[in-house]
């Protein structure tokens, strides 16, 4: 029997019940990671990925995703629908860094082939997920 990635993940979660299924966003994160690396992780690897994922959530670095296209200029994370990823913005993964221009009409970024630019209304972006890119605080800044 050939399993889909989703069936494989569900099987892994049953083999080693560690609360994976109760961690919001982890299953989608794991599917995206599998698509990016092109192979399926083993149970021990999933456990390590889960620990890193939950640690990231606890430290406030988990991304909040929305289906709403951005309307304010700035930097964003973009995740195209899986059926739109082949050949589009060759990002080596499921998530791309991009910037919405000051006029809020042009989206641009870089991939392994160079720079790309498109209208924020491009149909390729239908159903995409978006998350604001936040610059972390300077770790050497002295706070009072």
Which features characterize this protein?
single chain, 144 residues, 27% helix, 2 domains, five-stranded antiparallel beta sheet, alpha+beta, 3 helices
Layout of secondary structure:
Elements: H1 5-15, H2 26-37, H3 43-58, E1 74-79, E2 96-100, E3 106-111, E4 114-119, E5 129-132
Antiparallel strand pairs: 1-2, 1-5, 2-3, 3-4
Summarize the structure in words.
With 144 residues, the protein is α+β, with helices and mostly antiparallel strands. It has 2 domains: 5-58; 74-132. It has 3 helices and 5 strands. It has a 5-stranded antiparallel sheet with strand order 4-3-2-1-5, with no helix packed on it. β2 (96-100) and β3 form a beta hairpin. The chain is globular.
Short description:
This protein is an alpha+beta fold. 27% of the residues lie in helices and 19% in strands.
Q: Mean of residue pLDDT?
A: 79
Overall tally of domains: 2
Distance between the termini: 61 Å
Radius of gyration: 17 Å
Please state the structural category: alpha+beta
| Shape type | globular
Count of distinct strands: 5
């Amino acid at each position: 029997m050939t399993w889909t990635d989703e069936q494989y993940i569900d099987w892994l979660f049953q083999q080693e019940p560690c609360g994976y299924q109760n961690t919001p966003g982890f299953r989608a994160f794991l599917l995206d990671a599998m698509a990016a690396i092109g192979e399926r992780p083993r149970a021990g690897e999933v456990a390590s990925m889960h620990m890193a994922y939950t640690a990231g959530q606890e430290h406030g670095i988990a991304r909040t995703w929305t289906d709403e296209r951005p309307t304010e200029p700035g930097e964003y994370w973009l995740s195209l629908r899986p059926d739109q990823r082949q050949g589009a913005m060759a990002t080596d993964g499921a998530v791309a860094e991009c910037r919405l221009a000051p006029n809020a009409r042009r989206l641009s970024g870089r991939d392994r082939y160079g720079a790309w630019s498109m209208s924020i209304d491009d149909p390729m972006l239908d159903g995409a997920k978006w998350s604001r890119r936040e610059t972390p605080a300077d770790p050497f800044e002295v706070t009072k």
